[in-house]
């Protein structure tokens, strides 16, 4: 089924490299007040690809027995799941794979696939500042929640001077907090009110992590730019046809997807969902983003039976998805160049992102890449694993009605079993 054998092989090399090696520099004390630095160690690029299925053929019946045993772990609560061999597309194991379950942040796999389909990996968001009446400039917020201090410095440099800075948030419509979200999650750092411009995702006092988020992220952008111009700040509407006086762009979608996946950032996922909706002309609110995501998945040939999507991040406890659907998206990503960046964005077991501190003593460390998912009573894992024989297995596992930490351990043991 797969003619991308070379890619499947390269996945193994890439995963191992990310999970298992590092560079370092040797420092030697050569005398009082004098330090000599030896050149930093380097690692040569692989000279050949890891062969696919180079070892003995997999005994599928034996593998199923092994996975059945791992899936019976009581720590997993109500488990649903599916595993496929990426080389053949064969389903090698499943358990209630068509049963809708709470997917938590594995929902971001759907968002990433839809975005790559609709936008492409090089897509960027442009934020422009236009001139209004004398001394006033207006930021036309366009959906960039990745804005940085350096971008604001650049906008200030291009503007030169102003007495007043306003921000226009009309690019996004509807409510900025979904009804099925917990309002406490803003102060807990898991989400911010969805407004189309944010500095570091609306975080307060930090650039990354689950720190409290501001309740007025767009206004905070205007205030930060105003500080650089010694101006006042507020909200307003950009005049039609106004002259553009400054412009900055977001990182490309491929980088933004990686940031979203590695840290499971809900703000980024919701922003990307709206970016897809705007591109497709379906609207710019929560419902439009969800509808656009589903339309893209259908166009990719994904069967959406069992999907009940409320948001693009997985933060809503009302979301429902099936392991069959999730696994289908991941399997499709192994077969289509268009979706390949989705796989490259997944955290590496024991290496980075939400899997950085997991798999530390596991033989699967560096050989599994997966999106995690966590809500009260829900733990999830969806990605792929490279077996010792060189087979690549895609998998989706949804554990509901379980305690988070014990379920995580059991999910990791299941994925390690594929290794």
Automatic annotation (TrEMBL):
Q: Kindly indicate whether the keyword Hydrolase belongs to this entry.
A: yes
Membrane-crossing ranges are: none
Keyword Protease found: yes
Keyword list (alphabetical) reads: Carboxypeptidase, Hydrolase, Protease
Under InterPro entries, the record lists: Beta-lactam/transpept-like (IPR012338), Peptidase_S13 (IPR000667)
Q: Which domain of life is it from?
A: Bacteria
Pfam families in UniProt: Peptidase_S13
Listed GO MF terms: serine-type carboxypeptidase activity
Q: Which GO terms describe its biological process?
A: peptidoglycan metabolic process; proteolysis
Q: What is its EC number?
A: 3.4.21.-
| Family from the record | Belongs to the peptidase S13 family.
Q: What is the protein name given in its UniProt record?
A: D-alanyl-D-alanine carboxypeptidase, serine-type, PBP4 family
Lineage of the native species?
Bacteria, Bacillati, Actinomycetota, Actinomycetes, Mycobacteriales
